[in-house]
Amino acid sequence: MPVPAPSAPGNPSSSTEGILDTILSSKSELFRGSREVLRDSYVPSRLPHREQQIRQVAEILAPSLRGDLPSNLLIYGKIGTGKTAVVAQVRQDLQRRTELSSHISFVTLNCGNIDTPYSLLQTIANSFAKNEADRIPTGWSLDRVQSGMRRLMDAKGGILLLVLDEVDRLVARSGDNILYTLSQINTELDNARLSIIGISNDLKFTNHLDARVRSRLNEEKILFPPYDATQLQDILRDRAHEAFRDGVVDPGVVERCAAYAALENGDARRALALLRLAAEMAERDHAKRITPDHVVKAKNRLEQDIIIDCCRTLPPHCKVLLYAILQSFERRRNGVLTGEVYDSYRRLAERLGLQPLHARSISNYVSELESLGLIRATIVSRGRGGRTREIIVDVPISETMPALEEDPLIAPVGRPKPRGQMLLTNFDNPAGAGPF
Ligand SMILES: Nc1ncnc2c1ncn2[C@@H]1O[C@H](COP(=O)(O)OP(=O)(O)O)[C@@H](O)[C@H]1O
Ligand SMILES: [Mg+2]
Q1: Can you tell me which atom of ligand 1 is nearest the CA of 47?
Q2: What is the mean pLDDT of residues 353-379?
Q3: Which of 40, 112, 155, 242 could cysteine-pair with 166, CB 3.0–4.6 Å?
Q4: Is the C-beta atom of 79 inside 6 A of ligand 1?
Q5: How many angstroms does the Cα of residue 94 sit away from the middle of ligand 1?
Q6: Does 231 score more than 50 pLDDT?
Q7: What does the pLDDT look like over 127-137, one tens digit per residue?
Q8: How far from 157 is each of 126, 225, 332, 334, CA to CA, in Å?
Q9: Closest residue (by CA) to atom 9 of ligand 1?
Q10: CATH fold match for the domains 229-310 and 314-432
Q11: What's the 247 CA to ligand 1 centre distance in angstroms?
Q12: Architecture of domain 314-432
């Protein structure tokens, strides 16, 4: 832990305010300033080894500055190869140049946390709404949302650049109809024109698309290759320099983080997470420097953290489904069948006031949770030709359930937190399970 700075004179540290001041002004021995620098959401000013991709994206989007509609663009590459960061940077650069003109609007959505075509269109539409009265509510028909969206787009006018990040997850969940609708929309707009920038972590994403959608979306295509260990070192050195005080990162730290991450598909996110955790390990040890040993400790912790982060970023219904699976599994300690899982999902969703999704969508979510490595589903025969899937949980329940229960979405149906000696284990007991 950092050593707290002495409290300022006249500011008694016994008062809450004094304590808060002391904590806020306490200096970390390792960090130069904000820790945000090592977070995924931080867009660094330089993206080494992505100069070529930045140029390509900028060239494709540049016609918008002249008022022309850019081609649709598909960016694809494995996770952590800088796709989101590059698009964010080009967006910033373009916006800097268009501050005075309003004919370009950017909308960036992460499809990873959007459940349905309805909520996708609603979110896009509402990003153009000027006031509360214009916003599209839930409960309309899909057609009505579409025409509402067109109206809002035309009211905005000009060139609309729509970034659909992690679009592969949307298509895996809900098919590609929605992309067809979006890629067609220019024929029905009067005043605005839309260009789509799709970002996919799945390299084979376009194989799953209908030919018409594929050719529309694929007008331009850019592959982001994985980083090798030396490239990751450059990326980490930049970030370490920005994040840490001089001389606190021992030789070998950056190299080791880069080497581990290079083995994991050249994932810059993984490399940064290792560096961030290594710093936390060092702080926990009250160390004045980060050593390669801290990186080893960080690597062991990371697997767990990745699982928890992954659960946190699931879309709402998928979270509820995962929680239903964990609950059933915890009770039974062996495989659960998809039918039972669907029933408990539906019960939870209803208790949360959510309209449960159809079994078909839930079945897609089961596949998605499987491809994320959180569960395993095996097909089992059940006599008379019936087949179903049996689900086994692949994550540590004791950590994953509390992580989900911290989520405001799940909290109302979560287990009550143990208070003193009292520990309720009957999860179906509504008396102890929130306001329902
Ligand atoms: N070339 C780079 N230089 C600096 N940081 C990078 C670079 N590529 C990726 N990053 C960082 O790594 C993390 C993951 O990158 P991101 O763009 O989210 O990857 P992707 O979208 O391909 O999964 C982000 O924190 C990002 O800032
Ligand atoms: Mg991304």
Answers
A1: 3
A2: 90
A3: 112
A4: yes
A5: 19
A6: yes
A7: 999 999 999 99
A8: 14, 36, 56, 56
A9: 82
A10: no
A11: 25
A12: Orthogonal Bundle (1.10)
Distance CA 434, CA 436 (A): 6
pLDDT of 273-328, one tens digit each?
999 999 999 998 999 999 999 999 999 888 777 788 888 889 999 999 999 999 99
Q: Is 83 in the pocket of ligand 1 (CB under 6 A)?
A: yes
Record: fold of 51-224? Rossmann fold (3.40.50)
Domain 229-310 has CATH 1.10.1040.10: no
Domain residue extents for the chain? 1-30, 51-224, 229-310, 314-432
Lowest-confidence region among 21-25, 395-399, 432-436? 432-436
Q: Which of 233-242, 329-338, 348-357 has the lowest mean pLDDT?
A: 329-338
Summarize the confidence of residues 64-70 as an average pLDDT. 91
